[in-house]
Amino acid sequence: LFEVYGSGMRAVGGEVGQQAGGEDSELWVPPDRVPGAALGPYHVREALPGDTALALLLGARRATRAAVYRSALVDSSRVLGLEDAAQRDECTLAVLRDLRALRSEDPELPGLLAGVPFVPTAAGRLCRPRDLFHPRVREAAELLGEAQCYPAGPFAAPEVADALVALGMQTSLSLGALLDVARGVEALAADGQAEEAARQGAAVLRHVDARGAELRRADPEAWEALRRVRWVPVLRAPPEEDMPWPEGDLPATSLPGRTRPAAEGWLASAS
Q1: Beta-strand pair 9-10/2-3
Q2: What's the whole-model pTM score?
Q3: Which of 37, 49, 141, 157 has an alpha carbon 20 to 30 Å from 180's alpha carbon atom?
Q4: CA-to-CA dists, residue 42 to 76, 82, 130, 142, angstroms
Q5: H-helix or E-strand spanning residue 127
Q6: Which of 128, 228, 116 is nearest to 179 (CA)?
Q7: What is the pLDDT of residue 21?
């Protein structure tokens, strides 16, 4: 019997599982340079000198780092479920700093990690790499707020940010990104968060005004989709006395094709 990570004891024996580090595998010897929090109840803990060598002699196999991280981050919530954020971040930072070597062990791993929400933001959320922007994309802060759109702390360090880019973190403010923000604006307005919807909608409008021709040429499909989203902030009360105005509570945003410049208020007002 060998002491394993987590709690309890486990024996070497039986048929070895096919996936190193999987929940149904037999006993595995952990690789070097892997944080203990990433290891599970099928990894030998060297409680006594020689435990590792003895486990290998009795038939245990040495797990690869890629297999350990795949099990801990993709196949289970062992790491993301940690109450200690420092331990969680230690594991995920280790993955990012060693991503190139891990890819050589398991070519599928980067694609799987791209869909895992493990990157912390200053707002305290855990996000998928593709949901965030590289810190040098300063326009994103205007749209979403700095605490919401960038990786936080050590995850913003250059070598770590480069690894996140390899996992899909955005490096420019594309029309597709603006479309995502616009859809978020529509959702905010529908949820009654009129002030925030108006703020983000106005930011989208500034970017579309400044780069509209370029964005439309780059992604005609996203441009057409943007026309079908209610993201343009609109006045909810008449800007001038005696201007005809519809009754009732008006929405905070509207479709682009249903709006007019404020200077044309009298021409387009309700009658």
Answers
A1: antiparallel
A2: 0.76
A3: 157
A4: 14, 18, 32, 47
A5: strand 126-127
A6: 228
A7: 42
